[in-house]
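Researcher: Hi, I'm a grad student and pretty new to this. My advisor asked me to get structures for two proteins we've been looking at. I'm not sure of the right format, so I'll just paste the first sequence and hope you can take it from there.
Model: That works fine. Here's the first sequence with its structure tokens right after it:
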Amino acid sequence: MIALAAYITVQSLYTLIAAPSKPEPSYVGIVLLVAAALVMPWLGRRKRQLATATKSSALQADAAQSSLCAYLSWIALVGLLLNAAAHLPWADPVAALGLLPLVIREAREAFEGRAFSCDC
């Protein structure tokens, strides 16, 4: 996760500041992110319910990961939609930078041996 955070930072800043070409809209990416943004919150809730019923900490951690995936999907989707609809190529790398707090939090919690906690 730490390497992912570093990659996101470097690539996004390069794209914003120095890249000769700017991101193009990705309609396949938009479709995939819409699907993830709609399915992952539902999946997270269902996993959380099952984890409570079975008292499974592993399933509880997996439910938290599904919720995290939903957040990441929504943030990335905003960037892609702004790029596609409003023709703002800077929106995609800015959205990627917006993912950093969640990625860094997840990395810190994983390093400390804790699961991402989400009461969503």
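Researcher: Oh nice, that was easy. Here's the second one.
Model: And its structure:
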Amino acid sequence: MAQHLRAPRLFSLTLAALLVSLGVICGHTSSAVELPEAETRRAEALVPLLEGSQAFWAIGEFVHLGPPAIPVLVKALNNPSRRVRINAIEVMYLIKDKSAIQSLNALAANPEEIPAMREKALRVAIRLDPTSAMPALQTMAHDPDEAIRHTVISESRAVRDKAVIDLLIALLADDIPSVADGALQRLYGFTGRLVERQDFLQSTKAQRRAWSEDWVQWWDEHRDTFDFVPHRP
């Protein structure tokens, strides 16, 4: 009996992997085709199964449905189950359709959502399209939760937009030294600028403000001619 139950699940996971590979090759950009009404109802019935013992199977079924299932997955982001919401985001990443990006960025910027959900939504949104992430990053950079601000710094590494430099310079004056230090490390990765005697981990708030102003002055002088340093290992 157990073997019969495992076989469909293994088949679904294999199918999901194949479809994901095809999605990478083809490069989904938008869900131009809507699901028929019957398929929409079927997709909606799959949503509760995104938690529990059938979660892997449900994920495979959503991947099989592809980009047209994105509207159903967007609605699932309001599901009361944390696991359903997490897996809905995971399916969006596997389908790799850019029509999900707006909803993911909105979820990431929502202060009423739990941090783990916001962090995952931001990661997936940036992997789908880093050029759309700045509004969410800017909102999250002012979040009172330092873990969210750390996430902003970490995920900004994929964003090549001059606005991200302004965002990181502002975070140099953060109340938490580790956040400020993280912003400094990311700025160094983007700019190659290394300033001696700026130890943010051992700094006072006054020092961080002063050093932030030094970076503001440097940025004002270099903004127009600035190019991001190439990615380094």
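Researcher: Is there anything I should tell my advisor about the second?
Model: You could mention this: Residues 2-26 form the longest helix (25 residues).
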